[in-house]
Amino acid sequence: MASLPHDIFSHIVEEFSPYAPEELNALKSLSLSCNDLLPLCQKVIFRRIEFNHHPPRRIAITRLDDILKESPHIASYVLFFSYSLTRPDTEDGTISIIAHILSSLDRLTGLNLHWRPSSRHFPPLLDWTSFRNDPRADEFYVAVETVLRREHLSHLNVRSIKDFPFYAFTHRSELLDVEEEDYLCIRMTIVEHATGLNTSPYANVRNYSAGRLRWPRRMMEVVLDGQVCLQSSGSAVPPFNFASAEGLVMCVTKQMHAVEAERILRCGQSIKQLSYEVACSSGLQGFGNAILAGSFRTLTTLQIILATEPVDDDPFQGFCEELNHISGRNILEYLELEVSLDLNDCPLGEHHLKRLDSAVRRTGFPCLTTFDLIFRISQRSPWDDTAGPQPTMEDLENQHLAHLGTLRAIDGLDCLLSFRKGH
């Protein structure tokens, strides 16, 4: 064993998963078989620590704390720490043990913190500032803010905690990736660290993704140091500067929320990739003008996800109208339109497809190389006795292709059409 290169053993050990009981036992056995393998196995076993389940878990937390006291070097192996905080944790002292553990993790690169109400009697959101002067939680309060300022921490995920000190994390960044799933459910990743402490009052965003369930929060325009930024009122999340943003993923589920999405589009001056989902055809209203005010000179990849409603007489009307705004003034290379339809509405009428066929022209989209048209079809229930013969996906594809002759004939353009079963 001693004659084999160290990196071979390292590669083998890295393939084990400590989350599979059999592989965890194998790692433990390997660590006891040879002194040289002990640190390799420990690095894999302790790389990711998660305490996300409901109590009882105090035994596991206490055991980890004891291990770190007995073998302090193991703390440097922990790269990711996830903890779901509950109210009983503050009452039985568990949170103080977590604080001690966090204070020793000086190589941490990722931190997950969730508030999990233990019953309906507790508020759905945790007020972080309430920990500041709470003798049961003040150690945890200090430990978390200390971790946020450490140079190695690059990934932060916070859920259901209001007034969280994001600034302690963002002030170490020059550029961020941000993902918001819902209200106060935020992931941040530092993609470019600041050379020193960043004293800017806003955070620069490279990629931004909003949740697919609902628009996460209202964002208002603020001018900071001469830069137009977007900030949510009543939140500790820092203002975001979208001027250098390259990628956006947004979901607009109600017409009133389109205003928030358009603010981001207008602030973004360098967007290259955009995914935009709307709940109905009318939800696209204003989209084209927002692109013209922002990133029409840089946008190369555009994905539109469109859910249709029974009131949509023409599912393509809104899309084609907004596409017309940017026609001739764009450098789009890839355009994807995904449309959700009920099988009752298939096949689409010839006039619907002709409108789409004429909307994409080589003169209007000189750089376009791929147009990907995807239909997601929701099928009737198999026990629907009133349903007549249902066309197959292949039948639908052939019927629709026949009405897209202009698109398919454009030189240098791949026109792709596919029918898929709905979610």
Overview of the molecule:
With 423 residues, the protein is α/β, with parallel strands linked by helices. Among the domains are: 31 residues, no CATH class; 118 residues, no CATH class. The chain is 30% helix and 26% strand. It contains 14 helices and 18 strands. Strands 1, 2, 3, 5, 7, 8, 9, 12, 13, 14, 15, 16, 17 and 18 form a 14-stranded mixed sheet that branches. Strands 4-6 form a two-stranded parallel sheet. Strands 10-11 form a two-stranded antiparallel ribbon. It is globular. The two termini are 52 Å apart. The model has no long low-confidence stretch (mean pLDDT 84).
Short key terms for the protein model shown above:
single chain; 423 residues; alpha/beta; 14-stranded mixed beta sheet; two-stranded parallel ribbon; 14 helices; 30% helix; globular
